[in-house]
Amino acid sequence: MLLSLAIRDFVIVDTLELDFAAGFTVLTGETGAGKSIIIDALSLLLGGRGDGSLVRSGRDRAELSARFDLSRVPALGNWLGEQALADDSGELLVRRMLDANGRSRCFVNGHAATLAQLKTAGEWLIDIHGQHAHQSLVKTDTQRDLLDAYAQAEALVSQVRQQHADWHSARQARLDAEQHAAAYALERERLTWQISELSDLNLQAGEWDTLGQQHQRLANAAELQSEAQIALNALSDDDGNLISALAQLQGRLTRLCAMDNRLAPITALLDSVDAELRETLYALRDYVEDVEQNPQELAQVEKRIDTLHAAARKFRLRPEDLPQRLADWQQQLAALDDVADMDALIAREADALLSLRQIASQLSARRQQAASELATRISAEMHCLAMEGSQFDIVLTTLEQPNAYGAESVEYHVAANAGTPLRPLAKVASGGELSRISLALQVVTSEVAAVPTLIFDEVDVGIGGRVAEVVGKLLKRLGDRYQVLCITHLPQVAARGDVQWQVAKSGEGETGSVVSRIRPLNSKERVEEIARMLGGEQITPTTRRHAKEMLAG
Fold first, then answer.
1. Strand, helix or coil at 405?
2. How much is the CA Rg of the chain, to the nearest whole Å?
3. Which residues contact 469 (CB under 8 A, 6 or more apart)?
4. Which segments of 438-498 are extended strands (E)?
């Protein structure tokens, strides 16, 4: 819901701050007073195109901002979070600054934003109906979405969209396989040969490192054995070996401990060293006995290394990468078999298309039933809105192939007058007629529509009397469910408003320039304004009495 709007130096407004309420608000005033200024400002704030001519004469830039309550549009809150534009207040603050040279800057909750982001947010927040404003009702997407919402078919629509994506993917895979069959065959032949070459080597993971270690040990076996024996002799076999020398040192310190027990910890350390030296001695003896020179095994290892080197050079790889490359090629071949299996691809595509048609058929049945009911109800509402003899219809045209939105196109048709043929809504409805059709549609679909704020401009063009009262009652009904703003020149409509604002021009601006003022009216002022709308400049007691009666009714 729209909570507030602030405007500065925009067209003929110098400064304007408005707080909005729920329910039905009417804006009235003399012709040319600038009643559409709010609509123009909101359109610009929510992604509309603007240029420097919208900046008030003599000013450098126009500034606009609006605050919205998001409690009724959780989907918008989620989208703002995805766009990193959300805050924790549960509200949305939109700002836009437009320079006299036409450049603009946009902000959402204090973050810089694009016009596209403003426009996307606006589609959740406000629907503007009027001759001089963007009309979403003539868009085929809007028409289809309204029908689906009325039919409560959103879940089916989502399933159709997903199933269409699955079918499109299967179809593209089959087309790719047909187009690239020859290339796939060549690639399969290449992979098969490469895999065969490496598979014959019986490669093992980590084998190259193991071979390197084996070769190092076997090639240096004589030196390893000789050096290990020298170390063994130094420990125990040579004169003055380490273990004997340590034993003598232990004996001396043990005798000295009797004289000074502070040497006891040192003696204990030597005991630990003795134990470790003996462990080293045993390990060296085992090693010397285990090391042997084996020319045959060395030759086998060198042969295997040469074989892997040759394979690596052949495929321009490092020897250690051969096992992983073999696994990669095997995986690529398996994937290629999947994408080149034409029978499997054709079957997958057929199954996906069958599933799409089945779910689309369910959606079509739901749409057909809802379209008939909705068209009848809208036609009835149009007859009450000075469109006697008119007819509204929703045409469902079956497509050759279901698309992401179903098995048929949805288009609203209307015959604005009796005896005229039904034609697409966008081609035959005038601005005033389109506004009234929009009003009829919004009333009928009010139970399912999601946009919380509706703005109507020119809905009462060409009507009056009883029909004007009907329009007022319809807007009042909408105000029970939505926040409704209506610009009107009909007293019958204005009298139904929960709140009434008056728009007027004055020469109170700086340097006496003309500016537009908007202010809320109290009860007494409403009587005067309704009386003015009834009787023009000459307001009589009878006119005032009539105005009071209209407000009371």
1. coil
2. 44
3. 492
4. 453-457, 483-487
| Joined tokens for residue 408 | 């048929």
Total Cβ atoms within 10 A of residue 96: 24
Predicted structure pTM score: 0.59
Please give the helix or strand (H or E) that residue 436 lies within, else none. helix 431-444
- Comparing CA positions, the residue from 158, 149, 154 lying closest to residue 448 is 149
- Residue 457 contacts by C-beta under 8 Å, 6 or more apart in sequence? 36, 39, 128, 129, 130, 131, 132, 133, 435, 486, 487
Looking at residues 381-408, what average pLDDT do you find? 90
> Which residue, 340, 336, 344, is CA-closest to 191?
336
How far is it, in rounded angstroms, from Cα 549 to Cα 331? 84
Number of alpha carbons in the 13 Å side-chain half-sphere of residue 215? 14
Bridge partners of residue 98, in order along the sequence: 62, 104
Token output for 521 = 């009216």
Asked whether 203 and 326 are in contact (CB, 8 A), the reply is: yes
Closest by CA to 471, choosing from 450, 451, 486, 483, is 486
Distances 437 to 334, 457, 470 between C-alpha atoms, Å: 59, 13, 14
Q: Sorting pLDDT into bands at 50, 70 and 90, what band is 510?
A: low
Distance CA 480, CA 492 (A): 18
Q: Reduce the DSSP state of residue 120 to 3 states and report it.
A: helix
Query: In this predicted model, what pLDDT tens digit does every residue of 299-350 receive, in sequence order?
Result: 998 899 999 999 999 999 999 989 999 999 999 888 887 776 777 888 989 9
Distance CA 524, CA 531 (A): 11
pLDDT for 374 beyond 90 = yes
Sheet holding 61-69, edge to edge: 13-19, 2-10, 61-69, 91-99, 104-108, 111-113
> What element of type H or E holds 6?
strand 2-10
Pairing of strands 483-487, 2-10: unpaired
Residue 448 pLDDT > 90: no
At 347, which amino acid appears? A
The DSSP 8-state label assigned to residue 235 in this structure reads: I
Cα–chain center distance at 286:
69
* Alpha helices, H only, 260-341: 264-290, 295-314, 322-340
